[in-house]
Specification:
Blueprint: E1 2-7, E2 10-13, E3 18-26, E4 30-39, E5 46-51, E6 57-59, E7 67-72, E8 77-82, E9 91-100, E10 104-108, E11 112-117
Parallel strand pairs: 2-11
Antiparallel strand pairs: 1-3, 3-8, 4-5, 4-9, 5-6, 7-8, 9-10, 9-11
Amino acid sequence: QVQLVDSGGGLVQTGGSLSLSCAASGSISRITDMAWYRQAPGKQRELVASITRGGTTTYGDFVKGRFAISRDNVKNTVYLQMSTLKPEDTGVYYCNARVFVTTWGDYWGKGTQVTVSS
Protein backbone atom coordinates (compact mmCIF):
# COMPACT_ATOMS: atom_id res chain seq x y z
CA GLN A 1 0.00 0.00 0.00
CA VAL A 2 1.38 3.39 -1.05
CA GLN A 3 0.80 6.71 0.62
CA LEU A 4 1.86 10.19 -0.49
CA VAL A 5 1.92 12.91 2.14
CA ASP A 6 2.23 16.43 0.79
CA SER A 7 2.90 19.39 3.03
CA GLY A 8 4.36 22.86 3.24
CA GLY A 9 1.51 25.02 2.05
CA GLY A 10 0.48 28.18 3.77
CA LEU A 11 -0.40 31.82 3.42
CA VAL A 12 2.11 34.20 1.89
CA GLN A 13 2.06 37.67 0.43
CA THR A 14 2.65 38.42 -3.22
CA GLY A 15 6.33 38.02 -3.98
CA GLY A 16 6.89 35.59 -1.15
CA SER A 17 8.18 32.05 -1.19
CA LEU A 18 7.07 28.60 -0.10
CA SER A 19 8.60 25.16 -0.24
CA LEU A 20 6.43 22.09 -0.59
CA SER A 21 7.39 18.52 0.21
CA CYS A 22 5.83 15.19 -0.60
CA ALA A 23 7.04 11.93 0.89
CA ALA A 24 6.03 8.57 -0.49
CA SER A 25 5.87 5.57 1.79
CA GLY A 26 4.64 2.00 1.74
CA SER A 27 5.48 -1.09 -0.23
CA ILE A 28 7.39 0.79 -2.90
CA SER A 29 9.71 -0.99 -5.24
CA ARG A 30 10.45 1.96 -7.51
CA ILE A 31 9.21 5.44 -8.33
CA THR A 32 9.62 6.92 -11.76
CA ASP A 33 7.94 10.26 -12.47
CA MET A 34 6.92 12.58 -9.68
CA ALA A 35 4.98 15.77 -10.15
CA TRP A 36 3.09 18.63 -8.62
CA TYR A 37 -0.34 19.65 -9.81
CA ARG A 38 -2.51 22.45 -8.58
CA GLN A 39 -6.17 23.29 -8.65
CA ALA A 40 -7.53 26.76 -8.14
CA PRO A 41 -11.16 27.31 -7.14
CA GLY A 42 -13.40 26.81 -10.13
CA LYS A 43 -10.58 25.63 -12.36
CA GLN A 44 -9.27 22.32 -13.67
CA ARG A 45 -6.29 20.67 -12.09
CA GLU A 46 -3.14 21.61 -13.98
CA LEU A 47 0.45 20.44 -14.07
CA VAL A 48 2.88 22.67 -12.21
CA ALA A 49 6.06 20.67 -12.63
CA SER A 50 7.24 17.12 -13.10
CA ILE A 51 10.52 15.34 -12.65
CA THR A 52 11.77 11.96 -13.78
CA ARG A 53 13.79 9.66 -11.60
CA GLY A 54 16.88 10.81 -13.46
CA GLY A 55 16.11 14.46 -12.80
CA THR A 56 14.65 15.65 -16.08
CA THR A 57 12.15 18.41 -15.35
CA THR A 58 9.10 19.85 -17.04
CA TYR A 59 7.30 23.02 -15.98
CA GLY A 60 4.03 24.66 -16.75
CA ASP A 61 4.34 27.74 -18.91
CA PHE A 62 3.09 29.97 -16.12
CA VAL A 63 6.07 29.18 -13.90
CA LYS A 64 8.50 31.34 -15.88
CA GLY A 65 11.52 30.40 -13.82
CA ARG A 66 9.87 31.02 -10.46
CA PHE A 67 9.47 27.40 -9.36
CA ALA A 68 11.93 24.56 -9.03
CA ILE A 69 11.11 20.89 -8.62
CA SER A 70 13.59 18.45 -7.15
CA ARG A 71 13.63 15.01 -5.58
CA ASP A 72 15.48 12.79 -3.19
CA ASN A 73 15.32 9.22 -4.40
CA VAL A 74 16.67 7.83 -1.15
CA LYS A 75 13.89 9.47 0.85
CA ASN A 76 11.28 8.99 -1.89
CA THR A 77 10.48 12.66 -1.58
CA VAL A 78 9.72 15.35 -4.14
CA TYR A 79 10.00 19.06 -3.46
CA LEU A 80 8.67 22.21 -5.02
CA GLN A 81 10.40 25.48 -4.28
CA MET A 82 8.24 28.43 -5.18
CA SER A 83 9.33 32.04 -5.26
CA THR A 84 7.95 35.34 -6.48
CA LEU A 85 4.50 34.01 -5.78
CA LYS A 86 1.47 35.66 -7.33
CA PRO A 87 -2.18 35.62 -6.31
CA GLU A 88 -2.93 33.45 -9.32
CA ASP A 89 -0.69 30.77 -7.80
CA THR A 90 -3.32 30.25 -5.13
CA GLY A 91 -4.78 26.77 -5.04
CA VAL A 92 -4.47 23.29 -3.66
CA TYR A 93 -1.21 21.68 -4.66
CA TYR A 94 -1.22 17.92 -5.11
CA CYS A 95 1.71 15.57 -5.22
CA ASN A 96 1.64 12.82 -7.83
CA ALA A 97 3.90 9.82 -8.31
CA ARG A 98 4.19 6.88 -10.64
CA VAL A 99 4.98 3.96 -8.35
CA PHE A 100 5.79 0.31 -8.88
CA VAL A 101 4.64 -2.07 -6.19
CA THR A 102 3.59 -5.25 -7.96
CA THR A 103 2.58 -3.23 -10.98
CA TRP A 104 2.75 0.42 -12.03
CA GLY A 105 0.22 2.85 -10.71
CA ASP A 106 -0.39 6.56 -10.17
CA TYR A 107 -0.80 7.84 -6.64
CA TRP A 108 -1.86 11.20 -5.28
CA GLY A 109 -1.39 13.15 -2.11
CA LYS A 110 -4.33 14.75 -0.35
CA GLY A 111 -3.17 18.23 -1.29
CA THR A 112 -1.76 21.21 0.55
CA GLN A 113 -3.28 24.67 0.37
CA VAL A 114 -1.23 27.56 -0.99
CA THR A 115 -2.73 30.99 -0.63
CA VAL A 116 -1.04 34.09 -2.01
CA SER A 117 -2.53 37.35 -0.84
CA SER A 118 -2.19 40.72 -2.49
